[in-house]
Amino acid sequence: MAERIGRAWRRYSTVRIFRYYRDLIRFRERGDPAVLLRAVNPREANLSDAACGVHVRFRLGGATFPPLIFYKIYTHRPVADVCAFSPRDYVTAALARKSARRQVRHVRGAGGDRSPAGLGQTVRDDSYEGWYKRIENNGWRPVSQRVLVDVDEVTARTAAKAYTFHFDPGVRREDKIKAQKQKQREWMAKMYADKGTDKGGTGGAGGAGGGG
User: Which segments carry the region annotation Disordered (predicted)?
Assistant: First the structure.
């Protein structure tokens, strides 16, 4: 009986803490982004103005409870990614062509008019090795000054996440939809797995009680 009361009290306290942080985030998201940034990160607040269309989002996270409040800066204005216009590694391609020309000159110089096999054929490189990958460097950062001293795990992971940035907007949209569906499938699988574990644990406890 005492264990049940303890679990109920811990559950009640946990829910109260979660609701407090949730309501705090909802209240903050209704405010002016510039004012929020001045309170959270004054250095970046000086870089934004009304024309930037800045939007600040908050979320709860962290490895321990009570959770930490993280924020991330978004913009509603178009952002031009200059590297996306030329995603290929042109330096490596130029070096490869230069090496091929040297090989042709070497073969011709050694054997007269002889040419290497496949010289007149068109070679197409379907490899994306060395192509541009976008790194946002705009991860979820903690609001609390206490954890800003050290690099937080969530901040490092979300900021250093790199993904392939295709030059075709249609392909980017398809990849985004596929990633969302895959994430939803993983979430559903995890939810059903946790539900099955809970049922198994409850059944074991009930069987033990019935045997007593």
Answer: 193-212
